[in-house]
Amino acid sequence: MQEQPSLFTAQKFLPRTKRITYSRITHTLSILGLSATGVSYSDSKGKLHTASIHKNGEIIVSAGAIGSPQLLLLSGIGPKSHLSSLKLPVVLHQPHVGQFMTDNPRFGTTIVLPFQLLPSAGKVVGILQENIYIQSFAGPSTFLVPPAFSLLPPQSTSINPTLASFVGKFSDVNSKGWLHLNSSLDVKKSPIVRFNYYSHHDDLDRCVRGVRKVGDLLKTQTIEKIKTQDLEGEKAFMFLGLPLPENLWNDSSVKEYCKKTVTTYWHYHGGCLVGKVVDGNYKVIGIENLRVVDGSTFSVSPGTNPMATLMMLGRYVGLKVLKQRW
Ligand SMILES: Cc1cc2nc3c(=O)[nH]c(=O)nc-3n(C[C@H](O)[C@H](O)[C@H](O)COP(=O)(O)OP(=O)(O)OC[C@H]3O[C@@H](n4cnc5c(N)ncnc54)[C@H](O)[C@@H]3O)c2cc1C
């Protein structure tokens, strides 16, 4: 329960909400029968507290795509086999909690520029079919070269190359993963999460198309300027990390490139999907007085950055709750 946009939004629309900041739900939600009744949490000094809901009250969990399924599992709401394997009492067998974990793979390339540039915010440079978004970023980046690998004295081992990144994301990812608890007692022990990047061939095909488009971009006249000249006078891109495959029409080498360079866009979602774990009102199916409102309910993350959509989700549900209660 830290200060987050979703909490501010909830408080704005639910004036009788008491805000408790810098606290952590330590273990579980209290559930009597199939009704959520309270939460136990520790404050910033580690002191334990419990909060119980009033009549007609409810608990709204907004702990994110990793925290919310983790809390539900720790509270005994999840796949029976997983809970039983950790000797956790099963409150509700809910096979979909912690399932459909999804992360949009980030693909593309980063080039070291032969000149300095001021930092620029990410820009969408193109949207291809099948919701493939290509973005560009540029600006200085600081690398600290470890002294052991540097010929320069330690105080001068900081270099500031200017980098340009051409990266892409696609919104509806087919490769799905899972989240399992790593501890049945300690909420601070991060759960184990697998996103299974590119386990679905459609995702790999989309990466190939996206990487080809980045390759097309690098062939344009404007981008010629970011090539670096070597000692023989030859101009070439100075790739940071793995260079783009030379033959972008060779499917297998581009697929290999996608797999080797896969990284996150930090837009992971899933674990408590609408229609699987929560209903259309974001209420946990099968449990009274409990909602999940955050990115864990998303089956798809929007093409670019998801924060605005998430804030609007908080507002949307906040207004709904307000209408129902007052
Ligand atoms: C490095 C990074 C950069 C990003 N950049 C952007 C960007 O530029 N633009 C954009 O739109 N999106 C960006 N995102 C994505 C965006 O931040 C997330 O998609 C969004 O914050 C998810 O919102 P959420 O409400 O689902 O979860 P979160 O924002 O993660 O909120 C969940 C909160 O619950 C807290 N919590 C978890 N467990 C517990 C517990 N047991 N007890 C109490 N509190 C708990 C967490 O500490 C967290 O504060 C970025 C993400 C990352 C990681």
UniProtKB/TrEMBL annotation:
<keyword id="KW-0274">FAD</keyword>
<comment type="subunit">
    <text>Monomer.</text>
</comment>
<dbReference type="InterPro" id="IPR000172">
    <property type="entry name" value="GMC_OxRdtase_N"/>
</dbReference>
<keyword id="KW-0732">Signal</keyword>
<keyword id="KW-0456">Lyase</keyword>
<dbReference type="GO" id="GO:0016614">
    <property type="term" value="F:oxidoreductase activity, acting on CH-OH group of donors"/>
</dbReference>
<dbReference type="GO" id="GO:0046593">
    <property type="term" value="F:mandelonitrile lyase activity"/>
</dbReference>
<dbReference type="InterPro" id="IPR036188">
    <property type="entry name" value="FAD/NAD-bd_sf"/>
</dbReference>
<feature type="domain" description="Glucose-methanol-choline oxidoreductase N-terminal">
    <location>
        <begin position="64"/>
        <end position="78"/>
    </location>
</feature>
<dbReference type="InterPro" id="IPR007867">
    <property type="entry name" value="GMC_OxRtase_C"/>
</dbReference>
<dbReference type="InterPro" id="IPR051871">
    <property type="entry name" value="GMC_Oxidoreductase-Related"/>
</dbReference>
<protein>
    <recommendedName>
        <fullName>(R)-mandelonitrile lyase</fullName>
        <ecNumber>4.1.2.10</ecNumber>
    </recommendedName>
</protein>
<dbReference type="GO" id="GO:0050660">
    <property type="term" value="F:flavin adenine dinucleotide binding"/>
</dbReference>
<keyword id="KW-0285">Flavoprotein</keyword>
<dbReference type="Pfam" id="PF00732">
    <property type="entry name" value="GMC_oxred_N"/>
</dbReference>
<keyword id="KW-1015">Disulfide bond</keyword>
<dbReference type="Pfam" id="PF05199">
    <property type="entry name" value="GMC_oxred_C"/>
</dbReference>
